[in-house]
Amino acid sequence: MNESDVRERLATVQDPDLGDDIVSLGLVNDIDIEAEANVVRISLALGAPFSPHESAIAGDVRDALAD
């Protein structure tokens, strides 16, 4: 999986507070891929600190990146 693949999958994750996907909203700050370890780390800029939907978005990100 490369960065383009990750962004494509993340584009399916919606921010319910802002009403669009996290890629289009510019909420994806950084993507770090360790292919050998099968690990992807994502840095997100969510709309508000302690966003009530933060856990749901994190779960959706995990689901989108699962094989």
Q: Would you list the SSEs in sequence order as H and E? A: HEEEEH
- What fraction, in percent, of the residue positions are helical? 25-40%
The proportion of residues in beta strands is 25-35%
What's the CATH topology label? Answer: GMP Synthetase, Chain A, domain 3
What is the total number of structural domains? 1
Give the CA-based shape: globular
The biggest beta sheet reads: 2 strands, antiparallel
Structural class: alpha+beta
What low-confidence regions span 5 or more consecutive residues with pLDDT below 50? none
The CATH homologous superfamily name equals Fe-S cluster assembly (FSCA)
Query: Got a strand count?
Result: 4
Give me some keywords for this one.
4 strands, MIP18-like, 30% helix, GMP Synthetase, Chain A, domain 3, 67 residues, FSCA_dom_sf, alpha+beta, two-stranded antiparallel sheet, Iron-sulfur cluster assembly protein
Task: Walk me through this protein's architecture.
With 67 residues, the protein is α+β, with helices and mostly antiparallel strands. It has one domain: GMP Synthetase, Chain A, domain 3 (2-Layer Sandwich), CATH 3.30.300.130. The chain is 30% helix and 25% strand. The protein is built from 2 helices and 4 strands; from the N terminus they run αββββα. Strands 1-2 form a two-stranded antiparallel ribbon. A two-stranded antiparallel ribbon has the order 3-4. Strand 1 (14-15) and strand 2 form a beta hairpin. The radius of gyration is 12 Å and the shape is globular. The model has no long low-confidence stretch (mean pLDDT 91).
